[in-house]
Design goal:
Blueprint lengths: L1 E4 L5 E4 L3 E2 H8 L1 H6 E6 L2 E3 L4 E2 L3 E7 L3 H22 L4 E2 L4 E2 L2 E7 L10 H14 L4 E5 L1 H11 L2 H8 L6 E6 L2 E4 L13 E11 L8 E10 L2 H16 L2 H7 L3 E2 L10 E2 L1 H20 L3 E2 L5 E3 H7 L1 H5 L7 E2 L6 E4 L4 H9 L10 E10 L15 E11 L4 H18 L5 E7 L12 H18 L3 E5 L8 E7 L5 E10 L1 H5 L4 E2 L5 E2 L2 E6 L4 H12 L12 E5 L5 H13 L4 E3 L6 H10 L4 E5 L1 H6 L2 E5 L3 E6 L1 H16 L2
Parallel strand pairs: 1-7, 18-22, 24-25, 31-32, 31-33
Antiparallel strand pairs: 1-2, 3-6, 4-5, 4-7, 8-10, 9-10, 10-15, 11-12, 12-13, 14-15, 16-17, 19-21, 20-21, 22-23, 23-30, 24-26, 26-27, 27-30, 28-29, 33-34, 34-35
Helix pairs in contact: 3-4, 5-6, 8-16, 13-14
The protein binds one RNA strand of 77 nucleotides through strand 14, strand 15, helix 8, helix 11 and helix 18.
RNA sequence: GCCGAUGUAGCUCAGUUGGUCAGAGCAGCUGAUUUGUAAUCAGCAGGCCGGGGGUUCGAAUCCCUCCAUCGGCUCCA
């Protein structure tokens, strides 16, 4: 007998070799039906794997990650089995579970596969589900594993196995399908009730573009059809918030093939929105002691040779601009920092002058790969809410912390609750990718870690994600369909001050090197607005909305009164339009609701005679009547509340 | 850049196997209506069917190529 300890501390005895499924059944049949995986002494196992020693366990149902991952992992195998049957001779890469669903990377050889094949694969998967194939685990030696896949002729699995330690290798089988896999998996294929293959895409083997590109099929599965339906509806809903769609509907921005791909054109409403965000940040930064500067869009090539950007990105950038003068070359600026370094240098600096905080909404141009461009989130010309802080070593942490404060304040004001903070450090195994001394890197990384600890900020740490000149703290937010985008960024840089030979005179009357902090709380105006659109679905907070109110006369007879109301409100600095089209009120309401204007003010006979407006709030309907002045005061109070939040 | 898909009026989309297939709704313009909380009615105008080649008696439709967009991969100073 062995002792099994449950999460609540209860201990019960079972026969040696008992499985998770048997334990669940012992508790209740219902639990046995719902349980999907089990944690045994901290490791997630298959429900059918025998437990041979005393153990602490926890059974996992669908609502837990451990269950979902087993479920989706088995779904990936299910798909792979179907693919092997339908396309004999294909070679399998990897097929993991992911945050939402699963994928499998497959080398289809000579088959040409497209979305049109997905339904066929789905039907075959359904057959396998109905066949209720048992999923079994087998431990194999490395030699045995290698032999199996060498014989099968699957170079990808052979490569994977070569990197594994002997004694840790397992195969999972179902029907005639066997896969190298760590597991865990579901007991049999019939567990996978409802699934859909979502998309097909190329993916380089092991994520390296020098390797062969395999075909990746993404899918999702659920234990109930209703869950799948809900998920698909949710995806559809999310697509409605896509900033590219909303941006077009609300006339915020556009692109022109003639101007060039990845070069956004801000339409009047979008420009207003962006300007408001910029002014907001300028006000905040002023409080924090920043000074605005302005620099040109180009700079001599030599500037970027000095900064190191040319060596790193020169070949893959917009190429230099030549002038009639022999040998003269300018680059579109990909960064503002070199220009700012030159501003720093324009006069001698004393330790008493530091920190110098230089801010600029600087437009930069980067030649992003064409396949990378994506609405406003990834573009070739964009404006950073950039600033560079030049400080003494003893000021570094405090300055860093203050920048975190700005970022958090902005996120709070804009109601971004779900963001993640990521510390990006360099990859210690690949130091050639970076410039600067080990000592400086260590100091910089330490400064970030300490600042984050001081703020008690929840962070993740990624090795190898640092910029080539320094480590950074990034703030990431998800878009409507769950893709992560980096917004705010704070970077410590010991490198540029050295390259530009920046100095200050210390209290000791000696020359010292300042440290630079690069920071952009929004990241770029383009990307920030994109994410803001997706979070709000275009229903911007009152203080940001391009138009805050629209007056809707019931008929043309009341256009004069409507005009009077609109003028009054505009005098109160409330951005007010009139919809005096010759249309019925229902139509005007509908159209202006679709434009996401926060307040609709309806005026007709009743209002005109009593000097009132009927207030209708976006999405919430009729709010009753009030005096125009009363409405104006209410709106202004709301706006004030929002910005001071 | 790579893999796959898509590209028809400002927008959203129809156009069966190549042969009145250049269409609809919305938006726009004109007129009628003068309207009470999410679409009033009628008329008009609007497209080199992404660009360029080709196959064919004939191409929005088939083929090639380029461009752009979308989903991923890679990249992201």
């Amino acid at each position: 007998m062995i002792k099994i300890t449950f999460p609540d501390g209860n201990v019960r005895e079972f026969a040696k070799g008992v499985t998770g499924l048997e334990i669940a059944k012992n508790i209740s049949d219902r639990l046995a039906k719902e349980v999907l995986s089990i944690t045994v002494n901290g490791e997630v196992w298959d429900l059918t794997r025998s437990i041979n020693t005393n153990a602490s366990i926890k059974l996992h149902k669908w609502d837990e990650e451990e269950a979902k991952h087993a479920y989706w992992h088995s779904s990936a195998h299910l798909m792979a089995e179907a693919v092997e049957i339908l396309y004999p001779g294909v070679k399998l890469g990897i097929g993991p579970s992911i945050e939402n669903g699963f994928y499998y990377d497959i080398d289809f050889g000579d088959y040409s596969v497209s979305d049109a094949d997905l339904p066929k694969i789905e039907s075959k998967m359904m057959e396998i589900v109905k066949a209720k194939e048992e999923i079994t685990r087998k431990e194999v030696s490395k030699a045995e594993a290698l032999a199996t896949y060498t014989k099968k002729g699957d170079p990808y699995k052979v490569e994977l196995i070569s990197d594994l330690e002997d004694g840790t290798i397992t195969f999972y089988s179902q029907g005639n399908f066997t896969d190298l896999c760590r597991g865990p998996h579901l007991p049999d294929t019939s567990y996978i009730k409802s699934f859909k293959l979502l998309s097909i895409a190329g993916a380089y083997w092991r994520g390296n573009e020098k390797n062969k590109q395999l075909t990746r099929i993404y899918g999702i599965s659920f234990p109930k059809k209703t869950l799948l339906d809900e998920y698909l509806v949710m995806l559809e809903e999310a697509k409605k918030r896509d900033h590219r769609k909303v941006g077009k509907e609300l006339e915020l921005f556009t692109f022109s093939q003639k101007v060039g791909q990845g070069l956004p054109l801000w339409l009047p409403k979008g420009a207003q929105l962006r300007e408001r965000l910029e002014n907001f940040l300028k006000r905040v930064q002023k409080k924090y002691g920043y000074e605005q500067v302005i620099t040109p869009h180009i700079g001599q090539k030599e500037l970027y040779v000095t900064s190191g950007h040319y060596a790193k990105y020169g070949k893959d950038s917009f190429q230099p601009i030549h002038t009639p003068a022999e040998g003269e070359e300018f680059l579109l600026k990909p960064m503002n920092c070199p220009h700012h370094c030159e501003i720093y240098k324009h006069k001698p600096r004393s330790y008493k002058d530091l920190p110098v905080r230089m801010a600029e909404f600087g437009t930069v141009y980067r030649y992003e790969q064409s396949g990378e461009l994506h609405g406003l989130t990834r573009v070739r010309g964009f404006t950073q809410d950039d600033a560079h802080i030049f400080c003494r070593p003893d000021q570094l942490k405090e300055e860093f912390v203050k920048v975190i404060d700005i970022v958090l304040y902005i996120f709070k004001t804009l109601d971004f609750k779900e963001f993640t903070a990521q510390i990006s450090l360099r990859d210690p195994n690949d130091k050639d990718k970076y410039i600067g001394s080990d000592e400086n890197w260590e100091k910089a990384e330490q400064a970030i870690i300490e600042a984050v600890q001081e703020k008690g900020l929840q962070t993740t740490t990624e090795l190898g994600e640092a910029a080539f000149y320094g480590p950074k703290l990034d703030f990431m937010v998800k878009d409507a369909i769950g893709r992560k985008w980096q917004l705010g960024t704070i970077q410590v840089d010991y490198n540029l001050p050295e390259r530009f030979d920046l100095e200050y005179i210390g209290a000791d009357d000696k020359r010292h090197r300042p440290i630079m902090i690069h920071r952009a709380p929004f990241g770029s105006m383009e990307r920030f607005v994109a994410v803001l659109i997706e979070h709000s679905g275009g229903r911007f907070p009152l203080w940001l909305a391009p138009d805050q109110a629209v007056v809707l006369p019931i008929s043309e007879k009341f256009n004069d009164y409507a005009k009077k109301v609109a003028d009054l409100l505009n005098n109160y600095d409330i951005r007010t339009l009139i919809d005096d089209r010759n249309e019925k009120i229902g139509k005007k309401i509908r159209d202006n609701e679709l434009k996401r204007i926060p307040y609709l003010l309806i005026v007709g006979e009743k209002e005109a005679t009593s000097d009132m407006v009927s207030v209708r709030m976006q999405g919430e309907g009729d709010k009753g009547q009030m005096k125009p002045e009363e409405f104006a005061n209410y709106i202004n109070a709301e706006v004030k509340k929002q910005i001071e939040a």
